[in-house]
Prior knowledge:
The protein is an alpha+beta fold and 153 residues long. The chain has one domain: Pyruvoyl-Dependent Histidine Decarboxylase, Chain B (3-Layer(bba) Sandwich).
Amino acid sequence: MKIAIVSGKDEGPTKLNAFDNALSDAGIGDVNLIKVSSMLGEKTEIENLPKLKAGAMVNCVLSQITSDNPGDEITAVIAVAIGDSLGCVVETKGINKPKNKLLNEAKEMVTYMMDKRNVEIKELHIESSTTVVKDIASVVASVVYLKNEIIEE
C-alpha cells in the first residue's frame, strides 16, 4: 500500500471557497475525496504526492477546519503510525488550541490505536497545517491512498 501525506491552507470569499483553496494548496483540489476510516495495510510506504487525474475518486483520511472569525488560529493535524502488519491514521483539529497540544493529542491517539492492536510502531509521521484567519480561512491535513488508476502519467 502506498500513501501520501499532505497539508494546505488558504483564504477565500466563502467558507466553501476557503476549503476548496486549502485543498488545492495541498495538491488535492481537483479530485473527488472519499473519506475513509483509519487503517493502513501491511508494508505501507509513504511517497510524495504524484499528479492526480482530474476528477479521480480518491480515498483519504481528512482533517479540516474552517473559520470566518478574524484572528482565530486554526490547525488541522494528521498522525500516521506504521507497523509491520498494519498501520493507523488519526486526525484532530482545533480553533485557538496550542499547536503542540494538538500534535501531542494526535500522537497519543495513534499510539493508543497501535497498542490496542499489539502492533509495534516502526514509523510515526505527523503533518499539520496552521494559519491565523484574516477573513475566512481553512486548513487541511490528509492521508491520500495512492492507486495507479488515480495517478496521471
